[in-house]
Amino acid sequence: MVKIAIDAMGGDNGPSIVLAGADIALVRRPDLEFQLFGEEAVVRPFLEAYPRVKAVSTFTHCEITVQMDDKPSQALRKGRWKSSMWRALEAVKKGEADVALSAGNTGALMAMSKFCLRTMAGIERPALAALWPTLRGESVVLDVGATINADAQQLIDFAMMGGAMARALLDVERPSVGLLNIGVEEMKGLEEVRVAGQILKEANLDHLNYIGFVEGDDIGRGTVDVVVTEAFAGNIALKTAEGTARQIASHLRDAMSRTLMGRIGYFFARGAFRELRQKLDPRSSNGAVLLGLNGIVIKSHGGTDGVGYANAIEVGYSMAKNGLLTKINQDLGDYHRAGFARDIADVVIEEAK
Amino acid sequence: MVKIAIDAMGGDNGPSIVLAGADIALVRRPDLEFQLFGEEAVVRPFLEAYPRVKAVSTFTHCEITVQMDDKPSQALRKGRWKSSMWRALEAVKKGEADVALSAGNTGALMAMSKFCLRTMAGIERPALAALWPTLRGESVVLDVGATINADAQQLIDFAMMGGAMARALLDVERPSVGLLNIGVEEMKGLEEVRVAGQILKEANLDHLNYIGFVEGDDIGRGTVDVVVTEAFAGNIALKTAEGTARQIASHLRDAMSRTLMGRIGYFFARGAFRELRQKLDPRSSNGAVLLGLNGIVIKSHGGTDGVGYANAIEVGYSMAKNGLLTKINQDLGDYHRAGFARDIADVVIEEAK
């Protein structure tokens, strides 16, 4: 059994997509159980509409819903202890659920997660990790939104957490890890990135194959299983890739529909276009993971549909089933055994400056 | 007449693409003149092969060539005063040429440009600006590689320089400008970006329409004419977009060639695919501009061909013809008249902290 605690109010469309998604996920994973949190009057009708989901779910009424435009501080003030988002996180904290999942306000979810679950021992700051479709399959990219201007030690933490996530999700034993950097020689990129790279190289960890710096175009190429960066550049990379994909899809649609020959070609090749659409479908990489907390927290896109939401449930399912938290602790243990406890790393960082 | 001083040795293929590019550019712009710098034995045969280019060019032999893998400090040590790269920049400094152009080592070109031409009065650090194809046409994106961790004042300088470049190149009178930021509410992005936004809003410049923050996916959408960011995130955004475009092109090729129906569809729609290829052709946005120097310096991709190199020449031509440097000085003047001299901005920046 994998138990998922769900903030049923989160997202642009709330319980309608949440329940539809749970229904789809159940078909694939019959050993799922759900704990749903939300406003009874809103959620109940959808719960009744999905009897299969209802049969494996508990429902808890919560008066407060965090709004998509609440500031994190607002959300914490009004929603702590009693909002559907908080209650889902709390279920994980109490050990009643394996995973908390919300399609709600990202900033609020990050703030509440930190407050409710706290960061793991040995981890200073959480990171938001995304699954990124590549030419080779999928890679883990982090941080895409939690910790801006991460320092060298935090980047190393991210490398280990991302490595653990890749082991839990991508079926690789010793994931390859690269630090995102820029290739302009004069700069050699950020100092924090250089220092983190030096330490990762020296630490030579059992569960993590550090291969060096990678550049922006290596992400889509799938050069490494895990791409590590701080949140500002990571979020901009993610959004830029989404924008570029939409832009090319739009150019392609225009080009194919402008002429009769284009339309005939489209008719013949519609199977190929369907295949391409599936490859580029943002729903199939929905479900970012907030790493570094005492519990598994998944963030779904607010605007996704049932298929996308089911994918976020699947990410949570795999993380729980494959022991994400145990794997992160293993990696932290390796790092410490390698003589790279935080205080030693601090000395290396100082010397490198 | 527009006079372009060319480092004929720069790039992965040196003078062969340089001369081919010059020949293509001349057809479109018969009022071009070239000053070529390079090793005589290498350049001369190509010059003889393009009599049209030879007729409007001078050639100066330079013993030293900056290598693609030279560190900027190395390049400066061995190449100052006498390398083909330096001599091209020096031609601009002496007023003998309007534009310096190189497809060589980016770090070396930035270091030599700063050393040879110095930054403009009122500009602290240079920025590398790229032309970015969008759904609406083209936008200027800067900084994509020169100044990492730019502070608020430097971001404001970049906004003005990017605005001037858009006016010179994109035929807009009051370009819209956005600061690249991330939308995660908890953070509201980088502090430097917030402060720069506040000042740009208050300054309300004549030649620049500041519209606020934009995110990564706004770049391809063409939401603004000018996207401003510091060099780390900017370079990663640029490379990530290039990688995503290559990735999608590869998926598309695979999908169309896998089945007979796909191949038939491709046959009919090959006109549409040609159109798409042209839209995505990286050669047509080749030619980044190093802004903020006392002179126009263009960097061509090292791996481009004649068509791409001709485009870099065209960028330089337009910049000179449309008075880029004058326009930057106008914008700096506006900014100072608006009461936002650097020392006043410093106070605002302090207060905002």
Automatic annotation (TrEMBL), chains A, B:
Pathway note: Lipid metabolism; phospholipid metabolism
Keywords of this entry: Acyltransferase, Cytoplasm, Lipid biosynthesis, Lipid metabolism, Phospholipid biosynthesis, Phospholipid metabolism, Transferase
Top-rank EC class of the record's enzyme: transferase
Lipid metabolism listed as a keyword: yes
GO process annotations (BP): fatty acid biosynthetic process; phospholipid biosynthetic process
Pfam families: FA_synthesis
Catalytic activity, as annotated: a fatty acyl-[ACP] + phosphate = an acyl phosphate + holo-[ACP]
Transmembrane segments annotated in the record for this chain: none
Entry annotated with the keyword Membrane: no
Location(s) in or outside the cell: Cytoplasm
GO terms for cellular component: cytoplasm
EC number in record: 2.3.1.274
Domain of life: Bacteria
GO-annotated molecular function: phosphate:acyl-[acyl carrier protein] acyltransferase activity
Family named by the database record: Belongs to the PlsX family.
Subunit structure: Homodimer. Probably interacts with PlsY.
Function summary: Catalyzes the reversible formation of acyl-phosphate (acyl-PO(4)) from acyl-[acyl-carrier-protein] (acyl-ACP). This enzyme utilizes acyl-ACP as fatty acyl donor, but not acyl-CoA.
Protein name per Swiss-Prot or TrEMBL: Phosphate acyltransferase
Record gene name: plsX
